[in-house]
Amino acid sequence: MDLMKTKILLDEEEIPRRWYNIMADLPSPLDPPLHPQTGKPVVPDDLSAIFPMDLIRQEMSPERFIDIPEDVRDVLRLWRPSPLYRANRLEKFLKTPARIYYKYEGVSPPGSHKPNTAVAQAYYNMKEGKERIATETGAGQWGSALAFATQIFDLECTVYMVRSSYAQKPYRKSMMQVWGAECIPSPSTKTRSGRAVLEKDPETTGSLGIAISEAVEDAASHPNTNYSLGSVLNHVCIHQSITGLESREQMAQVDDYPDIVIGCVGGGSNFAGISFPFAGDKLTGKHPDVEIIGAEPASCPTLTRGLYTYDFGDVAGLTPLLKMFTLGHDFVPPSIHAGGLRYHGDSPIVSRLVHDGVIRAVSYHQSEVFDAGQIFARTEGIIIAPETSHAVRAAIDEAIKCRQTGEAKSILFNCSGHGHFDMSAYDAFYAGQLVDYEYPEQLIRDSLSRLPKIGQ
């Protein structure tokens, strides 16, 4: 093992040629998504109004591997394979015997892991002849990634951005506009869903559930437009698996394999990307002892305090019902600086793996998260997104445990994006303005009491 090596690199020709689909290795099938009106399992035709058929097939595919189109791989060459770093300086700072690695997805043009699926989704929509894609975004990483991808494939793009993040992160909006996208603060007056929310609460800070309702309504009401989601769904997790597949090859270069794999969790895309190839190794018995940890915010504690049940993916009830951990589809998180990771639900596959004990979840307060981000910046030099700092916090905690026990474990986490557009959040941290918000139990119970009866 080369203890001094900092960057572990792959050649462009080593970009994976197939995505990994963990559905093939689950011990039993997922509970199917249900139609929002009938409560019956969704069939492909139910989704064809807003998704291209290639993505619908991937969403329901039982195949272990799915070929990556060469036109998609050609775009991915702009930044992939992304580097795997050995965090030597962080290890030294923590005085830990642990070996810490991070997969750095901030090298993509939009600065996060999100274009791994945005490029694929834009490609399949272009292939089907669509002219425009509508979507939502929280902190802006997904919106900027899809703006980038649609520009490459000559598609129009409309992004409904959660109102609080629209105000907090103006340069994410600027990125989208540079790439030709339209960015609208949500809730807006452009859709029935948005107008209904504003009528009830004109001062609402918005939520991803509201923004999803607007984007789905937009897509469903325009024949030239499809909808695109940056997290949660199976096909998104499949596209993101390229991160974990590369990581496994890179760690093999230095004769190592992770004892612990970590990612931050909102809807589940970057977490699935880094962890699912390793979770597959765990499920198939190749590496049964690998520990997989999802880190989420205490202010939106879906996996740690939510209910595993069927719920809508949006506020208006336009999406299929998904079996997942949820805080209730009308849950509106507080307007905090760590603007991402604030979705009321989670990926059905991530949820299932947590429910089955294959993965465990932890939650952190903002002060813990930004402290970890500061430590990482001052040791490894990279200023990371607040969302990513949740994963760093968990990695630091695990490394400290190794210091206490003397165990030399190998820790891998997904460094899912840079924080160059999040400096106002770091400013708030230094000014002592961050609030360690913990959602009251009664408000969570109230939200869960309004879950749909279909599928319960």
State the main characteristics.
456 residues; four-stranded parallel β-sheet; Rossmann fold; seven-stranded mixed β-sheet
Structure description:
The chain is globular and about 55 Å long. The protein folds into 2 domains: 266 residues, Rossmann fold, CATH 3.40.50; 134 residues, 3-Layer(aba) Sandwich (Rossmann fold), CATH 3.40.50. It is 41% helix and 16% strand. Helix 3 packs antiparallel against helix 5, helix 6 runs parallel beside helix 8 and helix 11 packs across helix 12. The N and C termini lie far apart (52 Å). Strands 1-4-5-15-10-11-14 form a 7-stranded mixed beta sheet, sandwiched between helices. With 456 residues, it is α/β, with parallel strands linked by helices.
DSSP helix fraction? 40-55%
Distance between the termini: 52 Å
- Per the principal axes of the C-alpha atoms, what is the gross shape? globular
User: What is the CATH architecture descriptor of the largest domain?
Assistant: 3-Layer(aba) Sandwich
Rg to the nearest angstrom? 20 Å
CATH class (first level) name of the largest domain: Alpha Beta
- CATH topology term of the largest domain: Rossmann fold
Number of helices: 18
On the 0-100 scale, what is the average pLDDT? 94
Number of strands: 15
**What is the strand content?**
15-25%
Across the major sheet, the strand order is: 1-4-5-15-10-11-14
Biggest sheet features: 7 strands, mixed
